[in-house]
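Kindly go through one protein, given below as sequence and tokens. The question is how this chain folds according to its tokens.

***
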Amino acid sequence: MRKTIYAKMAALPVGLCALAFAVTSCGSSEYKKFADNEGKQVASILRENDCLACHSENAPLPFYGNLPLIGPVVQADMKEAVHYVDLTAMVEALENGQPVSEVDLAKVENTALSGSMPPAKYSHMPMHWGTSLDDNEKAVIISWAKNVRKDRFTTETVAEEFKNEPLQPLMKSLPTDPAKVELGFALYHDTRLSADNTISCATCHGLNTGGVDRKQYSEGINGQFGGVNAPTVYNAALNFVQFWDGRAADLKEQAAGPPLNPVEMGCTSFDQICEALAQDKDFTKKFTEVYPEGYSQSTITDAIAEFEKTLLTPSRFDKYLMGDKNALTAEELEGYQLFKDNKCATCHVGVNVGGQSYEFMGIKNSYFDYRNTGLTDGDNGRYAVTKKESDRHKFKTPTLRNVMLTYPYMHDGTVASVEDAIRIMHEFQIGKEINDVEVEKIVVFLRTLNGEYNGKMLQ
């Protein structure tokens, strides 16, 4: 019999107790039918335990969700659940043999390891009896996560003992064309990509300042300011999309944005840029040797993207994951363990320690009420692209590589210190107050993510 679970409740009025006991729930072993397919087993477990009753945007509201007193609590808890993770796409992917998100994998694995679902305040209620993962179900999920991570998300540089870590070391390099990289480096620093010849890519994404400009908002032509904080260009090639709102699929598409943005570089078209570059005979000769078709939006952005693929910054933490046990101190390892224990490594996962998902800002409490400065267009996040209300305030997670160097923090650039950023993330994303000792230990770990570029430590 299929397990029955309704939405989470904060309290159960006495008048509903009889109803609760009437709603029976018993275990299920349906997943065992898929003994030869761990992915389908996991999908079956998530469905049979009715995880999608809360963790799905399209989950129907249970009948008591409209009752006085308890209804608003049910609705709020369902909203919080789907803000944390919507499992719909993951379950469908598993059922159809398709790849799953590295972040979704980490979140489901964390739940199995911690036994945190359903929350304790519901687990003793009769209508939730039998809905917690049993030991066998947990074992299936943990085994599946380990195998998928090993097959899809580990890098060739990782030591055998760390293949199941949620964070992975950088690869040695990404495939590039050296001739295109050289052109891209020049174009990245070329102010002729802006309308008034004052702004280059490097103006807002300085290679000597952690790949950012360390301003709340970057300044474009005519003293205009953008509406979100400039993310780092270092390791950006490893992001699953580009920009906070994910409006660019890759580095090439991203490179086409700022030159035509009236607030940033202010050109009216790439024809204007091509004409300016064509005046430089020496550079044009070099360019056409690599791109015989000449200047265009496609060739210019391709060269810039090719250069940006080289901006990988190996760190001491990478050396540790590659097997050098002396690369990190005991204190740094303690900070890393806190990073994992506090669920930081469910969103900030993988090779780039982030950049693999959109996350809702303010799962546990309203970040924007806390900020108390009113909403801006930049606060819309992914909604700006999709126009789906459920995507409002969702942002691509930033990489934490070199995070000590990329201040100020958050999409709005309002947080000056990494310590405050850690406290805010714990309060608004995890719902936990973290003490100063734990904050400092996590900071000690984050310093190990400072990397090298061209053999020199970034400053």
Observations:
- The beta strands are 358-360, 394-396, 452-453, 456-457.
- The two ends are 60 Å apart (CA to CA).
